[in-house]
Amino acid sequence: MDSSKKTVLHGWHVENGANMALFGNYDMPLWYKTGVKAEHLAVIQGAGIFDTSHMAVVLVKGEGARVLLQHCLSKDLDSCLGKGKTPLVDGRCVYGVFLKADGTVIDDAIVYQLEAESFMVVVNAGMGGEIASHLVTNAGEGAVIVVDMTDRVGKMDIQGPDSARILGKILKGPAAVFERLAYFSFKGGFGDLQTSSHVELEGGTPVLISRTGYTGEFGFELFVPIKNLVALWSMLLEAGLDKGILACGLAARDSLRAGAVLPLSHQDIGPWPFLNNPWPFALPWNDDTTTFSKDFIGAAALLQKSWGKHTLPFAGFDPRKIAAEGESFVTSETGERLGTILTCTTDMAIGRVAGEIVSVAGDKEFQAKGLCCGFVLLDKKCFPGEQIILTDGKRQIKVEIRADVRPNRTARKAMNTMLV
Amino acid sequence: MKELSELIFGKGLRYTDDHEWVSEGGDTLKIGVSDYAQDQMGDIVFVELPEVGAVFEKGDEFGTLESVKAVSELYIPISGEVVAVNEDLGDAPELINQDPYANWIIEIKPSDTGELENLLNVDAYRELLKG
After folding, report:
1. Is residue A411 included in any domain, yes or no?
2. Measured between CB atoms, does B97 come within 8 Å of chain A?
3. B68 to A255: CB separation less than 8 angstroms, yes or no
4. pLDDT score, position A254
5. Domain residues for A394?
6. pTM here?
7. Is the CB of residue B10 less than 8 Å from the CB of residue B21?
């Protein structure tokens, strides 16, 4: 029997010719008829929309909500915002991970402070139940209500430099909504996800609009009552027609996030310690990275630092890939076995000019054929610029350890520059 | 994904169950991949071609097609010597997505044209795709 799940946009995906595949037990679009390259480039140069309603929302409410999240989430909610590391406040959100006591990853999450005693936790597809029960198990004395809202919240993303110009067309009072909507902040809400601010679409649908996404590009994650999601999807496609907006599938999401050096949970982070990776900002390190600013589940294990492996980003010299599966492995240039491949995909917006990685978003003229990129898990630390070999036992591809991959990303651009 | 009714089939071609096609007749044969194959793979970003002059036995791997999704090996359906490769694919691998029949991958001089008889005709290939 087919036990796979469908989002409310499933019918639209199929009608519009998407190549479908299972992801987190949801039947999801990989790409549509325009193809993944056009979708990837739309997000770099214009805008694309993604069905992300397979992701799970968990609501954490009550007097003990903040204390519980402080105990379970890797990010220090009392010391996380900006350079001054001020406490999380209403209308702001943070990225962190939920760890087991041994420091291994259950899942990553964005935690939104809706109100002082109300938090929205957004985790990956199929993880709502597990994260909710993890929170309940660790709730202790404080009064907390944990609600797994899996499949009950409509969620989609609009990503790309034209996102605000397009979204603005379907919002009521867009200028006020976008005002001071900094990276990792949000406004609006509805139902159980109520906040002190209110944002509506033209037509009256309440929406929670968050200046986040998982592509490395400027844009928003949008939450609406689930009955309104299909209508919002269609409104954005129509509003973005003149900007060449495209519906984008999971393949473009994967290549965009890999180029932006963002991890895919259960692939780049998972049942191994959350250490020696490109995402130390998800941990509450003190200034000299000797200890944490708070205690939390998994902290003690991480501080013992007994983990010898290193997760490192890489990029190739052409689009060729080695599948991150089965017999594939990583060697040094002299053939010494170094580790495994976690992610290997092609960022189609980039290429190399005289060895340097350039993007179609930059000002250099070049023909973007794409570069392979992703993450490797190595038994020793390698440094940016060092070359390693990816192989499936037959083919060998030389790639370079990188500090970063796709240049000219727009995620952190100032809002006012993205509206004109 | 294309429905069976939307798939294009080339004229005068034989097919393999690996979704490759071989042209029929003539001293040399062209080899490519079917519309079904390119649709399943998605955008092709790189084509690895053999050297002209390389000799392959039926079933040997002669190159790879890389899409954003995966790397797919190409297996030669007929034994023979490579007499030409489609150099256009080096600069523009997406040509295979645009027209998988006009954009052949290699041309071979078969060592035994009788091997053609073992390949699928268009009706048999269509049946295979029905599953």
Report:
1. no
2. yes
3. yes
4. 97
5. 308-403
6. 0.94
7. yes
